[in-house]
Automatic annotation (TrEMBL), chain A:
InterPro entries: GINS_A (IPR021151), GINS_bundle-like_dom_sf (IPR036224), GINS_Sld5 (IPR008591), SLD5_C (IPR031633), Sld5_GINS_A (IPR038749)
Identification of the protein by name: DNA replication complex GINS protein SLD5
Domain of life of the source: Eukaryota
Keyword Hydrolase included in the entry's annotation: no
This protein's GO CC annotations: GINS complex
Residue span, DNA replication complex GINS protein SLD5 C-terminal domain: 167-220
Main location per the UniProt record: nucleus
Organism encoding this protein: Vitis rotundifolia (Muscadine grape)
UniProtKB/TrEMBL annotation, chain B:
Chief place of localization: nucleus
Region Disordered, residue ranges: 182-210
Species the sequence originates in: Vitis rotundifolia (Muscadine grape)
GO BP terms, alphabetized: DNA replication; double-strand break repair via break-induced replication
Subunit-level organization: Component of the GINS complex.
Family: Belongs to the GINS2/PSF2 family.
Identification of the protein by name: DNA replication complex GINS protein PSF2
Lineage: Eukaryota, Viridiplantae, Streptophyta, Embryophyta, Tracheophyta
Residues in DNA replication complex GINS protein PSF2 N-terminal domain copies: 14-71
Length: 220, 210
């Protein structure tokens, strides 16, 4: 029942061996780890989540059948454990994203981060911002002097939307590279490093962001 | 509850690190007969008495708890090997010895649930505790040497649990150095000589092999 995934969620085409050897659970684990460790919300893994949902559903039905046709309790409990573990990964993945949406809702709404959300998450984000806007307006903003009533700006004099919390993309993250990467440029500094496969590094998120998206680096 | 382990979203709890460690494969020797398991995470079995097979650690512990198997401790978890590792750790001031990424979690789960399958289990436990202490002391000493803006840190052979423990501190410390040690804030002497030298050696600037 372990279905390998052939449509990589952003894996480079020449990584064939790792592609065919990776189960959906492994991919889900990776998505969960990356999402947890990254300061900003990442692209929603639509295909992976869909497949995982289907597998979980299938397994739930299987376990139910086991219960009915009298399979021994040991087997049933082992299948249930595996089911629980997979469900945990999926649920935690979705919940982390929701937490990030709640934290950075206005930022998400007004930038292209919006495109990284699933349809349901977008609906959720919109509801969040609507509710928050209404709440702040009714409780505080309407009673502030004119020129200070905006949800996005501190005052009319602000040039940018400085009341909108943004994720800190320059934070440091722990990561591991799948293969060795030579001459990797560390963002704005003049420094260039060689990354050895499988060694643990602490780098700035900005620098490794494109490599995470392409699947070459995992956050730990 | 899923996803609510910590108010700070990007921190992993110890349980979550253990959860990841539970997927490591170990060898078991079943004492019963069971059909293959076609789980979402993989296919395992068939299980036949006295015939060793590989399963994930969580599955091994589940079977062991129900008295259905014995677990073969991994090769590195012997008194002999661990004594070697401990000595090497003590002799090397800045390097970490290679150990499985999840060695802490594996050792903990096995000694909690499969004590009788580990020869000299108390010795093994004590060695692992000593190893953890020595390594952690190295991490602390190494962290003390960070005294300026650092763009990259290499932690060769550090394990998952150890990395997770130091993560909050290290991230904040590096961030603080980055912010306060910015070249815009402090006038720099001419650094072209330094840059030329760095171009030749391209490990991370502060390659901390501690």
């Amino acid at each position: 029942m372990a279905s390998g995934s052939e449509e990589g969620s952003g894996f480079p085409a020449d990584d064939y061996e790792s592609l065919i050897a990776t189960t959906d659970v492994e991919l889900l684990k990776r998505a969960w780890r990356n999402e947890k460790a990254a300061p900003e919300i990442l692209h929603f893994q639509t295909a992976l989540v869909q497949r995982s949902r289907e597998q979980i559903q299938l397994m739930e039905e299987t376990v139910e059948e086991f219960g009915e046709n009298g399979t021994d309790p040991l087997t049933v409990s082992l299948y249930q454990m595996d089911l629980d573990r997979t469900q945990f990964l999926l649920r935690s993945y979705l919940r982390i994203r929701l937490q990030k949406i709640e934290k950075y809702m206005f930022h998400i709404l007004k930038t292209d981060v919006w495109s990284r959300l699933s349809e349901q998450e977008q609906k959720f984000a919109k509801r969040c911002t609507d509710d928050m806007e209404r709440h702040l307006e009714q409780s505080v903003l309407s009673r502030l002097p004119d020129g200070y009533q905006s949800i996005l700006k501190q005052s009319v004099a602000s040039e940018e939307d400085d009341m909108v919390p943004e994720p800190r993309l320059d934070t440091f993250v722990f990561c591991k590279s799948k293969g060795s990467i030579e001459a990797f440029q560390l963002d704005d500094s003049k420094e260039v490093v060689d990354l050895v496969a499988d060694d643990l590094y602490i780098l700035r998120y900005n620098s490794v962001k494109p490599l995470i998206e392409s699947g070459q680096i995992d956050l730990v | 509850m899923a996803g609510q382990s910590d108010p700070h979203i990007s921190l992993f709890s110890a349980q979550e690190v253990e959860f990841l460690g539970e997927d490591e494969m170990v060898e078991i020797v079943p004492n019963m007969r069971m059909d293959p398991l076609n789980l979402i995470c993989g296919d395992f079995g068939p299980f036949r008495p006295q015939i060793a097979t590989q399963v994930p650690l969580w599955l091994a512990v589940a079977l062991k708890k129900r008295g259905k198997c014995t677990i073969r401790p991994p090769e590195w978890m012997s008194v002999e090997k661990l004594t070697q590792v401990l000595e090497a750790e003590r002799n090397s001031l800045r390097e970490f010895q290679p150990l499985p990424f999840h060695y802490v979690e594996i050792a903990r789960l096995l000694s909690d649930h499969a004590r009788d399958d580990i020869p000299d289990v108390y010795m093994v436990r004590s060695l692992i505790e000593d190893i953890r202490d020595v390594r952690f002391h190295k991490v602390e000493t190494g962290l003390e040497t960070i005294h300026e803006r650092t763009h990259a840190v290499k932690l060769k052979n550090l394990s998952a649990m150890e990395a997770n423990i130091v993560r909050p501190f290290v991230v904040r410390a590096l961030q603080a150095f980055y912010k306060h040690d910015s070249p815009e804030m402090i006038p720099q002497p001419d650094t072209t000589a330094i840059r030329r030298r760095q171009a030749a050696d391209r490990g991370p600037k502060r390659d901390r092999r501690y």
